[in-house]
From TrEMBL:
This is Sulfotransferase. It holds the Pfam family Sulfotransfer_1. One of its GO terms (molecular function) is sulfotransferase activity. It is an enzyme of class 2 (transferase). Its EC number is 2.8.2.-. Residues 58-318 form the Sulfotransferase domain. Belongs to the sulfotransferase 1 family. Keywords: Transferase. It comes from the Eukaryota.
Amino acid sequence: SIEEQDNLSQEMKEMILSLPRERGWRTPYLYLFQGFWCQPAEIQAISTFQNHFQAKKSDVFVATVPKSGTTWLKALTFAIINRQNHFISSKNHPLLSFNPHDLVPFIEYTVYGKHDKIPDLSNIQEPRLFGTHIPFDSLPNSIKDSNCKIVYICRNPFDTFISSWCFANKIKPPHLPTLNLEDAFEMYCNGSVGFGPFWNHMLGYWNESKERPKNVLFLKYEDMKEDVHFHLKKMAEFFNCPFTLEEENEGVVENIIKLCSFEKMKELEINKIGTFGRNFENKHLFRKGEIGDWTNHLSPSMVDKLSKVIEEKLGGSGLKF
Ligand code: A3P
């Protein structure tokens, strides 16, 4: 229960207990905080972040819907931005010995995840790279008002759902019951999934990317898969470090693609046997990496239902999957 969580302050516990709650996917409950569903430890970290974070104009945020390609986008972002200090073809490239979540730390788990400390981030080498699942509206004003860059990725909701369901069952604590597909599906369609509803998450960044395209780059997993070369160049331009003709001719773009590919990353020692945080096994981050696995899991009535949700919530937005 919340009372037993020694990583939460008393004040936080009281605040969280006042929030609406639903059954969680891999924790007993999810709580509705600022219009999205999340776990108690995340709420505390996000509050600290909102109260203390000072953006710098050179900051880069990798913002994502969970299970939409976060690991991949972090790897690509790190490789593109740091390619002058870390040559892509180097045998010592950090992506060969660190998981992308170590190189682009999550705001809500890593950076602000230690409840008794407000981290000093002022001396981190610029540009600072951070990852987050926090919806756009809940980012601190310091970020919204600064000129920093946010690269966002989402994925078609059918695949995101299956990926989330598989992941939740792999990493849930053993004392929680297995989450069956039907229950998870209802929760997903109702919006009660970590950082969901997914449609609000997507729309927040989608709308901002239309308003401020120089600051928010909106990507989709499927588009990236289809033409990663094109999107890599687009990302580099967005980060104000476009690939030179010389780099293109030397194969730098292709080498980044290879370095960050599912096949390559999945087979690295760090990702096969390495762990992240206290006891999270990196291998769970690499499952199939394909488009359309949902066709192996969802019944026709489920497909029908989720299609209707997507149409109803995103139909007017211009955002399509
Ligand atoms: P599947 O579960 O469909 O295989 P996230 O990184 O946001 O947690 O997203 C996880 C999904 O991205 C998983 O999808 C995972 O297999 C896939 N993935 C991980 N690394 C990838 C990579 N380098 N390229 C493409 N997809 C990747």
